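Annotated sample (chain length 294).
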Amino acid sequence: MSRLFRVELRRLLARRLLRFTTLVVVALLTIAGAIVFFTSDMTPAEVERVQNERLQSCVESQGFGNAPPGTTDFEAFCREDLGSEIDPRLDYVEVADAVTELGFPFMMLGWILGASSIGAEWNNRTLTTTLTWESRRVRVLVAKMLALVLVVAVWILLLLVFYALAMYPAAAAHGITSTVDSTVLGDMFESMLRVDALAVVFALLGFALATMGRNTAAALGVGFAYLAVVETIIRGFKPEWSDWLLGDNISLFLFGVGESPLTHGQTTAAVILVAYIGALLLAATALFRRREMA
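Output written by the structure step:
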């Protein structure tokens, strides 16, 4: 098994798709960091002007409707209510909070890599070659899964760390970093781990669907159709089933209870996701054992 795992690991790391995607994502994050750096450079006069505009807008609307009855000093209320929001400079806390917003695109990266990792082998018929020197199909498939999990987990986490580093110069030079402490960094790392975990889940989802469909496009198409069409129909006709839908549990696990209408917590959502992916992987393995390779 260890030899199989090493072979699969080297194969995944040598794939042009992984290298090309990494270059593209790193380039985009670098460009985004540069844009934020140059556009966030504000003079003290500009900062004061924007602060006054935001404060005036709040006062004129009487606290945007949030002021309690009997409030007379709306300027004091707005200063307290807006807090740090009145400052237009880039606060690195906002960058940390934005990590979860990257969940969807990074999950898609995991999905594509997972589906193509075995879908390409079906298309190129290299699985037949692999099985000539290792006939135990379950061992072959498990080695591929383990290699995929390790590569995707490390890959996505490194990209997320690069995102945080790319945005830091703008906050350090032109923004606010004084609000960043160990709690903020801990929350940011926790968010990174959640995004990372979901990327691994989606990689295994793509892997399972591609194994059953013998095609990368089939895995992407079936998965998209289910999430975008089938679950939407279910939510419309059977909203009480939302607690068990894949998309809703992904959202709950990523964003937390406050952003979700589901009745259970993040731990339960994680268990449901693992159960679904585990069932798909078991079905894919059973089908792989019986399938003709010709």
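Annotation: The chain has a mean pLDDT of 83.
Annotation: Residues 242 and 248 are 7 Å apart (CA to CA).
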